[in-house]
Design brief:
Blueprint lengths: L1 E6 L8 H14 L6 E7 L2 H12 L7 E5 L14 E8 L1 H11 L3 H16 L7 H21 L3 H5 L1
Parallel strand pairs: 1-2, 2-4
Antiparallel strand pairs: 3-4
Length: about 160
């Protein structure tokens, strides 16, 4: 899995190596081919608000947006071809506020937003209650396996 990471905002609270490792973990867990690619960009609130209004018709910044590229219904590409999962956009300032509200670290919140975004790229959604329950279950399982693989990192994030 190739992760294209761009940090346009929030550099001080983000660890690109950890983000890349998490994306690889999620991709392996979801069975994505090794030649998959995802881009993740961290933007300021003004840019996130512009994207949120332009694509979702909602005012103000949101925490994470996902834009699927290659559709899973089209099947994975042949060997050697890249499966472009899509783009994830995260607003670190929104994540900081959410982490404070939820009583956990920024690292934990960013992990959650990345997993949430990756699941959207894989076709998960939370519009309907049954879809939301399935997505939440998968998100919780992916985060638990990731944090377990980090040798107690979740405890160290608090």
């Amino acid at each position: 899995m190739k992760a294209l990471i761009t940090i346009d905002h929030g550099e001080e609270g983000l660890d690109a190596a950890r983000i890349e490792a998490l994306i690889s973990h999620v991709a392996r867990s979801l069975g994505l081919p090794a030649q998959s690619e995802v881009s993740i960009t961290f933007v300021d609130d003004a840019e996130m608000a512009r994207l949120n209004e332009g694509y979702r018709g909602k005012e103000g910044p949101t925490d994470v947006l996902s834009f699927e590229c290659d559709n899973l219904d089209d099947c994975f590409p042949e060997d050697g071809q890249t499966f472009e999962a899509g783009d994830i956009i995260i607003a670190p300032d929104v994540a900081v506020g959410q982490a404070q509200d939820l009583g956990h670290s920024l690292t934990e919140e960013v992990d959650t937003l990345i997993v949430h975004g990756m699941l959207h790229l894989m076709g998960y959604d939370h519009v309907e209650d049954d879809e939301a329950a399935l997505m939440q279950e998968e998100q919780d399982a992916l985060l638990a396996s990731w944090w377990a693989s980090q040798e107690g990192a979740r405890d160290g994030m608090r």
